[in-house]
Amino acid sequence: MLLDARDLDQRAAYRLMIGSIVPRAIAWVSTLSADGTVNLAPFSFFTGITSSPPSLVFSAIRRSGAHKDTRANVEATGEFVVNVVGEGVAEAMNQTSEELPPDVDELAHAGLTPLSSARVRPPRVAESPIQMECRLDRLVEVGQGPGAATLVIGEILAWHIRDDLYDPERARIRVDRLQAVGRLAGDWYTRTRDQFELTRPNPTYQGR
Amino acid sequence: MLLDARDLDQRAAYRLMIGSIVPRAIAWVSTLSADGTVNLAPFSFFTGITSSPPSLVFSAIRRSGAHKDTRANVEATGEFVVNVVGEGVAEAMNQTSEELPPDVDELAHAGLTPLSSARVRPPRVAESPIQMECRLDRLVEVGQGPGAATLVIGEILAWHIRDDLYDPERARIRVDRLQAVGRLAGDWYTRTRDQFELTRPNPTYQGR
């Protein structure tokens, strides 16, 4: 069946997007406001860009026209941490999707443990299996109206990796042990334990 | 453990990125060259941006400094189709990751069936369960050197959805039936059948 975007309102189009672009990695982003309050929120319009330098992007969609705290904090401070969501923190991540006033420490509110970062000021989430410290590269505005979005492009300055998830011999992350959680549509998520391998016909240099 | 990006070369950083940003949705992108040759290639640095208007983004990383055919075609024609990768087309998708000369029809080469699109010129892949027709919004250059990338930002003009995957009552995609495939690190992929639900503490308007 064909659905033309001209016949869909914003909510209908959003439903189709979150059902078509799956599974999505989750950026659980910790930031500091200008006055030092910790903010923590999940974003599933999130992906990598390049490793030259290591760069990632997530989309912060306005809510009823207002910028999210995360976007305001990143703009004010230029720094954020992306915490990876493993199965063990999925419930806590979900709690932090609640909209709370900007002066509430959402990391503490969710019963999580802050850890100091090495190269940026926002704290990391101790319970997260991998944390990436990032510096803002730039903000890119996309779309119009109350649902317009900001692409937050960041450079990864440092990785913190739980020891058992790193394979020093091959200098890679043990994704078979990570138990990362992926976002689907609505309230649904997927585990990543059901893995399979496909050998590329013509390997490139990247990551090999 | 802490890994500082200043101590990592481009390949090492890439390995960490593809192991940390998981699972990733796959954009299997069909384009036409200026002279009409079909190109088809998978990109897993891919996500949504906003539904106002419906917009998505994927990152095309240069290979040894050269632009990929997809990026050149999108720039030349302003159009592309994102085909969703279900389990049934995972092997075919993997075949199209091979680098072939720009004059080879990669859709035919992989034994796939082209279908005309409704609003753009590049064909859709019939075997793909969902196809999104897109018009180029803009290209954003990120990074430096031979591994620099281009963010390809597109507006979704139309969805084609396999009938059994659409729930007309709730106007949504049946992700429980989609069997989408997610990208992990190296040659590894995840199925998305192992799903679970988390009820949001404070639902927003979006997609609900």
Fold blueprint:
The structure is a homodimer of 208-residue chains.
Chain A: E1 2-4, H1 10-20, E2 27-32, E3 38-43, E4 46-51, E5 54-61, H2 69-77, E6 79-84, H3 90-95, H4 106-109, E7 114-115, E8 124-125, E9 130-142, E10 149-161, E11 166-167, E12 172-173, H5 175-178, E13 181-183, E14 188-191, E15 195-197
Antiparallel strand pairs in A: 2-3, 2-6, 4-5, 5-10, 6-9, 7-8, 9-10, 11-12, 13-14
Could you walk me through the main structural features you see in this protein, from its secondary elements to its overall organization?
Two copies of one chain form a homodimer. Chain A has 208 residues and is of the alpha+beta class. Chain A has a single domain (9-191), classed as Electron Transport, Fmn-binding Protein, Chain A (Pnp Oxidase, Chain A). Chain A is 16% helix and 38% strand. Chain A contains five helices and 15 strands. Chain A has helices at residues 10-20, 69-77, 90-95, 106-109, 175-178, and strands at residues 2-4, 27-32, 38-43, 46-51, 54-61, 79-84, 114-115, 124-125, 130-142, 149-161, 166-167, 172-173, 181-183, 188-191, 195-197. A seven-stranded antiparallel β-sheet of chain A has the order 3-2-6-9-10-5-4. A two-stranded antiparallel sheet of chain A has the order 7-8. In chain A, a hairpin with a 4-residue loop joins strand 11 and strand 12 (172-173). The termini of chain A are far apart. The model of chain A has no long low-confidence stretch (mean pLDDT 94). At the A-B interface, strand 1, helix 1, strand 4, strand 5 and helix 3 of A face strand 1, helix 1, strand 4, strand 5 and helix 3 of B. Strand 15 (195-197) of chain A pairs antiparallel with strand 14 of chain B.
